[in-house]
Queue: 2 jobs
Job 1
Amino acid sequence: MGDQFPPLKNDLILRVARGEKVERPPIWVMRQAGRYLPEYHEAKGGRDFFECCRDPEVASTLTLQPIERYKGLLDASIIFSDILVIPQAMGMVVEMVDKKGPHFPNPLRSPDDGQYSEVLNRQVDVAKELDYVYKAITLTRKKLQGRVPLFGFCGAPWTLFCYMVEGGGSKIFKETKSWIYKYPEETKALLQKISELCVEYLALQVKAGAQLIQVFDSWAGELSPSSFKKFSQPYLEYIAKHLPPRLKEMGLEPVPMVVFPKGAWYALDAACDMGYNIVGLDWLHDPAQAVKTVGDRPIVLQGNADPGVLYGSHAAITEVVKEMVEGFDWANRRKGWIVNLGHGITPFVNPDDLKFFFQEIHRLTKTDGQ
């Protein structure tokens, strides 16, 4: 399988994922390919967002833009796609509304609305429906020429469920909360269905060439600790448990797996035991405390600068980098940390300020002579 791709020249992130001590911490950031880059808008042209995702040539071009702009500063790429391709594959209509974000014109309103049983019982052929993602991954691996490894990803079942019933982002999650407190069993049935599709989708991404995968639970923080244990944790665990054997069935090696339960600070200890190699931290975590929580477990932490610091001065960026380097105890540990932001890059960030962030990480973590 690996023979069709050029050999990897930078395996830093894979070595860290395996628990090895390394010369410096690897760096990538969520949404590193995207609208803050002027070249993104040029390549996107008049296409809508999902058209870009569905065109392997365009998706691969967008994936590579930050690797080319920040040459030698980044240690991973992540395929240009969206978490909502799974609800689309399940038969739901999703539109990307300019300046507003994703919108479902016909969300799931109750278990009796007809669409619920259709979605739940539909036989989804993830290989066929999301073929464009796998084509984009394979093409991107070839174009990367081994410069850095490539991440595949999916949305976590809980987060996808939120979008499917809410119809988009929300501040109060009225529909979502109505579902879990009125229809808990129907909610769990749909979460299980989504989980099974996630496993197959991630396995096919690895088959196509993804070298690591991340599960984004962007709305995990909307759950109370007890609700998280019912509606998020079991399904995150399901993916971690079932992906490696599914890869084995397909004749593929396991790949490092990242879980990112954004906002669910209370679940860090549980996240370390879910079966993932890497746990993503948002900016609400104190790095030193997170390292303490991990303890002796062979877990790598990823994160966790406040993305908002990129609107600040260079002095502020340096300070945040220093805090992370000290908090993750890099000088002593030299392992167990992948540098990232605590969430995706936000719009209107100056790409040069992000470059400065990367340069400061390199400057403040590199071992002399290596």
Job 2
Amino acid sequence: MRDRCPEVDKDALDAQVKDRKIQEAAEKARNEELANEMKRNDKMMCMLEERQKCNIRNTNKAVSDFQKNFQQPETRREFDLSDPQALKKDRPARLSDNDPRCTVSGLQKFMGEDLNYAQRTKFQKEQLREWSLQQQRDYKNALADKKYLDDLHDKNRIELDRKTMEQQRLEEETRRAVCAAIKDFNKSQAAELAERKRLDKRQKMKDDMDEISSQLQGDLLSENPDQAISSFGTHRVITDRWKGMNQDQLMAIRSFQQQQVLEKLRLKEEERQRDAEWDRQSMQAARAQLILERHQARQNRECRQALDSINAQLSQEQKSKNIYLKEEEYSNCPTSQYFAQFNTTSR
């Protein structure tokens, strides 16, 4: 499609900008009014919260004073369970292993908790000491055995290294002998190859001289036109022997090229006519699209004006409702006497 430059309705654009600015100003005023209302509500909530905290603090203080003056720990029925002097007042759990108070159901005596615990512990420590000494002796014997095995291993490794070095020396001598034999064989091969190359070079020079003589006396260099005629027909030639076309063949080719030029000019004229018709149709489609866009913009502007009118009406109703709530519904503010009637008892 060709490039086009549609016209711009400046008045419509200016009207859209003006409507947009009016809408933004109205929205900004509404947001500021809502922000101020939220600030007043937050301030009132902070005051009420501070008053509630003060009342709770006074109530907790009164409860604490009452418990301190009229609910002493010694007067409680369960004081014996948390008496700090209970251990000083109480007797030991048992006086001996045969204490009659140590019954089965009392759970005061278990295995290993007899009064001979100190002597039994001393005997167990002596037994552990003997066991530890025995383990140390076993450990020393194990270290000695390990040292003997390590020494034996080192001796075997040294002997193995000596045998390996001897084997490497024998392999080195064998390798030197093989290399000497290979060197002699390579020398003989090189001499034979040089002789063969010399004979091949002489034969190649003889063949080249025969080829040059054959070419000089052949049809290729003598430019014989009959040599290019193929055995498959007179209309076919042998490319490596063909020396060019004659005048009749050249005239036929030029005539055919002139026909091709005329045919190409005719095709270009048809393409130019098709492009002109396509441009005309494109301009018509662009003009119809511009008319449709202007109509759509006009409808959008009318819808936007109707929406602005509805929004203004809703804003006025919201303002009236806020004035009614402020002056009628929320006119009676609670006093401190109203909050003082709560939390007046300890329960």
